[in-house]
Write a structure and sequence with these properties.
- By secondary structure, this protein is α/β, with parallel strands linked by helices.
- The chain has one domain: Luciferase-like domain (TIM Barrel, Alpha-Beta Barrel), CATH 3.20.20.
- Helix content is about 45%, strand content about 15%.
- Helix 1 crosses helix 2, helix 3 packs across helix 5 and helix 6 crosses helix 7.
- The longest helix is centred in the middle third of the chain and has 18 residues.
- This is LLM class F420-dependent oxidoreductase.
Length: about 325
């Protein structure tokens, strides 16, 4: 099992994200996962730096920790050719530490280009084409592609690493899990759902299995839950809603009824190691082997101290 830490570009400035990544490596994590958004989920979060610039700085300022996008949508805001080039470059400048996490996207980030927001089935077909284009370009040479939704004209990525990055596909349902098995090197989830792992493996997937684990460290459960309610109440809307709403103000409205008890049901809140282990165990029991600890608490450094001093030793 490998352990990662979620870097939330929506909640912190680019400079702070880079500082946190350095601290995460020092705390003993195996990798960092960084979100790739244009907008924050809520105005209260107040940030949304450009992930690929931040990744380059993290690669330059760290030595060991792996780097993962969690996740990039390579179909609308980015053309897959750009992501093929960006991921190859990241693999080179990080000395092979980069993993490309991809997904079918959220309206929150992709509607900005003015092309509308397709339905889920269309988004999955677009993602399939995007992955085919990325794989094609990573073969080297000049390549073209004519798809139903995406095209490529006489393009070549000149700087390719000897070992290509893994591609991990975000899967909120069985359709995406099947795409992960066919065109990816792993699966990525945000819920402790064994059915997603089972779908992935039943379709031939035998790669890594990433999942984000909801934790919130603070001196008390109440303080931890209050921090989640302030900055991350959108979690309770669920993925079918999270993928569809276009703006932070919509997430504010959709999550206005979330209460402390809702947070406590899903997040490990407070400083009780046993509760944190209980929530983490839901994901290991579901079959995930790369766990991304997502701290919704108010103090990232306090969580890193808690991880290094109390939690990590219990997860070995």
């Amino acid at each position: 099992m490998e352990l990662g830490y979620k870097l939330s570009t929506e909640g912190f400035s680019p400079q702070e994200i880079i500082r946190q990544a350095i601290a995460v490596e020092q705390a003993g994590f195996d990798f960092v996962e960084i979100s790739d958004h244009f907008h924050p989920w809520l105005d209260e979060q107040g940030h949304s730096g450009f992930t690929w610039s931040i990744l380059g700085a993290i690669a330059a300022k760290t030595d060991r920790v792996g780097l993962v996008t969690g996740v990039t949508c390579p179909t609308m805001r980015y053309h897959p050719a750009i992501i093929a080039q960006a991921a190859a470059t990241m693999a080179l400048i990080s000395d092979g530490r980069f993993t490309l996490g991809v997904g079918s996207g959220e309206n929150l980030n992709e509607h900005i280009i003015g092309e509308g927001w397709p339905g889920a089935r269309i988004r999955h077909r677009m993602l399939r084409e995007a992955l085919e284009i990325i794989r094609l370009l990573w073969q080297g040479g000049y390549r073209s592609y004519d798809g139903e939704f995406l095209s490529l004209e006489d393009a070549q990525v000149f700087d390719l690493p000897e070992a290509l990055p893994r591609i991990v596909v975000a899967s909120g349902g069985k359709a995406a899990a099947s795409i992960a098995a066919e065109l990816g090197d792993g699966i990525f989830a945000t819920e402790p759902r064994p059915d997603l792992v089972e779908q992935y493996t039943s379709k031939g997937g035998n790669g890594v299995r990433y999942a984000e684990v909801p934790l919130a460290f603070a001196a008390s459960e109440t303080d931890a839950a209050a921090a989640v309610l302030e900055k991350e109440p959108w979690f309770a809307t669920g993925w079918p809603v999270m993928s569809e709403l276009p703006n932070p103000k919509n997430f504010t409205a959709a999550s206005s009824t979330v209460r402390e008890e809702d947070v406590l049901k899903q997040f490990a809140c407070g400083s009780d190691v046993e509760r944190h282990l209980e929530v983490i165990g839901q994901f290991t029991d579901a079959g995930f082997d790369h766990l991304v600890l997502h701290n919704g608490g108010p103090d990232p450094d306090a969580f890193l101290e808690f991880f290094a001093g109390e939690l990590k030793g219990r997860l070995g």
